[in-house]
Amino acid sequence: MRHSPISLADVEAAVARLAPHLTPTPVRQYPRLDADIGHGITVFVKHENHHPTQSFKIRNGLNAVLGRSAPERARGCIGASTGNHGLGIAYAGRLTGTPITVCVPVGNNPEKNAAIRALGATLIEAGARYDETIAECRRLQEAQGLALLHSTNDPLVVAGAGTMTLEYLRQAPELDALILALGGGSQSVGALTVAAALRPSLKVYAVGATGAPAQYESWRRGERLEGQASDTFAEGIATGSAYAFTFDALREGLAGFVQVTDEAMRAAIRDLLRYTGNLAEGAGAAGLAGLRVLAPQLAGQRVGIVMCGGNLSLAELRRTMDTP
Prior knowledge:
The protein is of the alpha/beta class.
């Protein structure tokens, strides 16, 4: 892919770094889910929620920390997150003895905050929106001389995300399409890079939240938007900007991009719990919500979705289960 910011070799190097620390997550099929989706579609579900931090972003965080030099790790690393990236780098910090600071928005998912602290990271709440949190993170990074672990604009992060698709294709080489939640774009760009090198016929679709349209509108207009409004319970895709490192690859490579409502993601959480016995967070259910939109045009195909995160707060679980 012409505009990919990483290569297949970068992804393979990430596989080598992660292999001693992570086991492959399962890919499963659920006949009741196939029947529900209809259109002759065979659905494959990759359970990234089975990682130690219940999210694919452990791949990103571990690769970002393990790929840093020893002096950088000794000084410490910092990142901004709504939770799952923070959990990934906190886990990596505990594994390697690297001091980690994680900046999160004020009012962030309390369970994610507690889990980050439990892994030994310093957690700082700053900013009402994620973009404001990033600004504070950069200020602290410069003031304290820390290594910045950006959740998107980092080749090690995106290469770590790419290991998921490389693993997925080895487990389910027959896939025709892959539908992925899109926040910053590491998961999608990793997938596009792997697909371009190994399975050019594989189509990659993105799913965003209607309440956080910055990435979708950037893709639709062909220009990178920043500082846009964001209002969705799915914090993993509550993105107010498109990012320089991933934008060109997304614009060039995606086969399509759909938006889904919070209500559709809540329905998908309930469906995934019903059919798979697994609890997804909002972003973790976005793939299924997007598949419902895309199903007519994917009729008869073998489609992969990813339960990319399972860190739903108790408060959001109650709201989701109480919704008709």
